[in-house]
């Protein structure tokens, strides 16, 4: 059983990937400072509490577990916060990534799967977007991820360190068995916010902009189930462990859903309507972001299995259970 170090493995996507790693026969070791992660989500292997900027702690964990590879999730992810506190994002996301990569190299580990984002593309020049799309991020969060991508490209060119960069579109949904799910505070993602509104949240739900050049005037996004993302990480890991070269892949369904369509789908699952108010556009929001996922299909043999309704139903069950737990 090969051991894989998963930085940020107690977070949303990281924990679901640990689940899939375990099912594939790997031993995931979670390395997480628990600033955004949850110890209860580390269910499929050891949890080592630490910060990726702490070189000594990283060396200790690499020496103890001797992982075959690293999957790197640990990062600050909120776009709005990155605009307010850009230095914090560069220090954590870029300096932290360098610290982790150098610790891996000191330990003789030369394979890493990196959690990146379609935010590195910025405003779309064509939709769907493939991996050759120009990269011009609109915010410090996207810039911080792009900087790490460049570091990984340089390491591939000038050293033996190989990596697979995975650019996510909109991660959503939860483990259908309800063992782990999406737990952010504050919550900023559309599906959890809409579900909370459907469950009676006093804050309702805001549709930011209804005058985009889309079919119904609202922004269009590509929602991909978190377990489909997790499956792609396992395949990318297998690619590297088999000696495959560095590469980059988009992860999305290839199908766009408008905000109004999303609201209607959640209302159908919830069995009733909820307050959805129109608000002004947010700066930096693109009209449409949809993945061209043909490269991941062809090279990794990956394809998304979950539909939008599966995503919403799994998230609905999770958030209902979360609400019940909060009342106990």
Key words describing this protein structure:
328 residues, alpha/beta, UDP-galactose 4-epimerase, domain 1, 7-stranded parallel beta sheet, 10 helices, globular, carbohydrate metabolism, NAD(P)-bd_dom_sf, UDP-glucose 4-epimerase activity, isomerase, Epimerase_deHydtase
From the helix content, strand content and strand pairing, which structural class follows?
alpha/beta
Return residue spans where pLDDT drops below 50 for at least 5 consecutive residues. none
For the biggest β-sheet, the strand order reads 3-2-1-4-5-6-11
User: In the CATH scheme, what's the topology name of the largest domain?
Assistant: Rossmann fold
Describe the structure.
The protein is an alpha/beta fold and 328 residues long. The chain folds into two domains: 3-172 and 223-251, Rossmann fold; 190-221 and 255-291 and 306-327, UDP-galactose 4-epimerase, domain 1. The protein is built from ten helices and 14 strands. The strands form four sheets. It has a seven-stranded parallel sheet with strand order 3-2-1-4-5-6-11, sandwiched between helices. The chain has a three-stranded mixed sheet with strand order 12-9-14. Helix 1 (12-23) packs across helix 7 (226-241). The termini are far apart. The mean pLDDT is 94. Its EC number is 5.1.3.2. It is an enzyme of class 5 (isomerase). Homodimer. Residues 4-252 form the NAD-dependent epimerase/dehydratase domain.
